[in-house]
Amino acid sequence: MAELLTNAAEFTVSEIAQAVKRTVEDEFGHVRVRGEISGFRGQHSSGHCYFTLKDESASIDAVVWKGSYAKLTFKPEEGLEVIATGRLTTFPRSSKYQIVIDNIEPAGAGALMALLEERRKKLLAEGLFARERKRPLPYLPRVIGVITSPTGAVIRDILHRLEDRFPSHVLVWPVRVQGDTCAAEVVNAIEGFNAFLPDGSMPRPDLLIVARGGGSIEDLWGFNEEAVVRAVAGSTIPIISAVGHETDTTLVDYASDMRAPTPTAAAEAAVPVRAELIGYVDDHGARQRQAARRLTISARDRLRAAAAGLPRPADLVATQRQRLDHAASNLFSCLRHSVQERHVHFSRVAPRLGPQLLQRRQVEFAERLKNFSLRGDAGLRKTVDRARLTYDPRAERLAAGAQRLVERKRAQFETVGPKLAPNALRAELRHSRSLLAPLAGRLLAGVTQQLGERRNGLNQAGKLLVSLSYKSVLARGYAVIKDADGQLVQQRTGLAPGEGVVIEFADGAVDAVIAGSPPPRKKPRPAPDSETQESLF
How far apart, in whole angstroms, are the C-alpha atoms of residue 115 and residue 224? Predict the structure, then answer.
């Protein structure tokens, strides 16, 4: 078969791929493509994003480089219809063409509303819009932080309304209220106000107002961003949202602690009317003064009524004074009566305290003391015998041991004595003394303990003798009378006039002589005569 000859030039695969790439890039350049995002799985590990744009009849691969993705104001999501701006190119390795996206916009209001609703449901499920998270606004904030554009009419309306109602300290954090950097600046402002220290150089706001004028959904989209909503929900300072007009609603309104329909309404909700507050305080002051006046008048009337019903002080103490006078008048008679009773009682008891009783008590105490003495002697003898039984064998063993020790030492000295030097003899004597010193110490301690015990027993017996002796009775004012023979005189009938006696007191004895005549002795009654009968008269 003959070869087919042709003049067509030959190209490599790479040359064809590069030629197609240059043709596509030169022909189309930057384009805007509308389609639905499909196959979006988020950022790749490299930071790039890969997905597909499609419509009902075709599809095109799309890629967003890492640097471009960070600048996107509208992030791609699965199923959204968007308008992508970028440039067409090819990927030579797989011979496919694709679009390198620089910017993404939603395809229309319908798509934005669908995205907004989906985001609202997501944040609602997380609890960011829960009513329990909303905090009450401070009644009278000292410092108010306003997050808005510094050049718009919104800040002027807020300041003007605050000046009319209640002049307050206002801190303005300037931000862009639309555009690509709107969301980031609002987040930084909220976090910045929350980072202020309560006692820092810049006062920390008690209330925040996030405000913006009206606009389209695209203009207000920065306040629908998830980062802004989370910053509002996470703020520790209460926030009033005043974004757009009354008919405009953003996700920030759901997350804030209060939504105001307009920025002016937000200023009205932030502070009360000063004039009304002054009137309210004056009204409460007047009511308080009137109530205090009524209470004072009522208390005065009650005091007067109570005072009228109370008795006079003199009447209260009159009865007690009379009782005191009566008791004082009866005190002397009661004292005399008490003295008489004590005198009668003493006269009844005095006869029982004569010398016979003292002698009997002395005999009893002497007998008890004698018994105690006998028991003490017997106990002492038993203790001594017991100690002797204990210490005699030890003393004998000690003497025998000492004798044996002396004999052994003497034998050692006789055997080794001539060989020992005086220093060695002194060492032996010190050793023997060290052996005998503990025994002597123990013997001395035992003897000292026994003597102490005997001394204590003797002291106790002496104290008992003193307490039982009649001497203690004499110390109380009594005396003992003895005749010339030293015998106790128990009755006065045994004494004769002129007889000498000895009267013993507590501090000594004195001699005395009996004066006067003895009392007459009773004559014995004659025995009745059995033969005569006595007269009845």
Answer: 10
Residue with the bigger pLDDT between 297 and 453: it is 297
Query: 291-322: buried (b, 16+ CB within 10 Å) or exposed (e) per residue?
Result: eeeeeeeeeeeeeeeeeeeeeeeeeeeeeeee
In angstroms, the CA 336 to CA 216 distance is 119
**Alpha-carbon torsion angle 252, 255, 261, 264, nearest 10:** -80
* Domain covering 129-271, topology: Rossmann fold (3.40.50)
From the list 211, 207, 208, 209, the residue with the least C-alpha distance to 243 is: 211
CB contact at 8 A, 208 and 177: no
What's the pLDDT at 354?
64
Residue 29 — very low, low, confident or very high, per pLDDT cuts 50/70/90? confident
Q: Give the residue extent of every domain in the chain.
A: 13-107, 129-271, 355-469, 474-513
- Judge whether residue 530 has pLDDT over 70: no
3-state helix, strand, coil in the chain (%, to 5): 55, 15, 30
Q: Which helix (H) or strand (E) holds 372?
A: helix 355-416
Residue 532's pLDDT is what?
A: 45
Is 148 buried (19+), middle (13-18) or exposed (0-12) by CB count in 10 A?
Answer: buried
Which CATH architecture describes the domain 13-107? Answer: Beta Barrel (2.40)
Where does 469-507 have alpha helices with state H? 471-475
Q: Which residues contact 36 (CB under 8 A, 6 or more apart)?
A: 53, 54, 55, 79, 80, 81, 82
Q: Are strands 49-54 and 30-38 parallel, antiparallel or unpaired?
A: antiparallel
Per residue in 455-490, pLDDT (tens digit) is 887 888 777 776 666 677 777 777 878 877 777 777
